[in-house]
Amino acid sequence: HYRETMHGAAEALETRARTTFVLPIEIANWYCYAGDGERCLYWLERAYEVRDPNLPYLWYPDYDLVRNDPRFRDPLQRMKLPTRDLDRMASAMTAIMGYELEALREN
Predict the structure, then answer these.
(1) What is the DSSP secondary structure assignment for residue 8, as one 8-state letter?
(2) What Rg do the C-alpha atoms of the chain give, in angstroms?
(3) How far apart are the C-alpha atoms of 97 and 64, rounded to whole Å?
(4) What is the pTM for the complete model shown?
């Protein structure tokens, strides 16, 4: 049910975006969580078009689903951001997040 719920959240934001501004990266995030790489990439391109200020954070592990797709790296290259170490950066972030989650569980 997780993926269906995430997809529903993405669709709700997509519907809302027709009448009010929604950061495209927010919609992309929900589609990525839902496992819908095509819709995620579509909204990441829209994010690039509107100069979404969150695009430099694409190295977060949230985007592992689409990280190896050339369409994922294209906006980064157009923004002149590094793409060479994305996998290593995402792995490091996953390790840090895992550590933080473990610390929260202990408290």
Answers:
(1) H
(2) 15
(3) 14
(4) 0.76
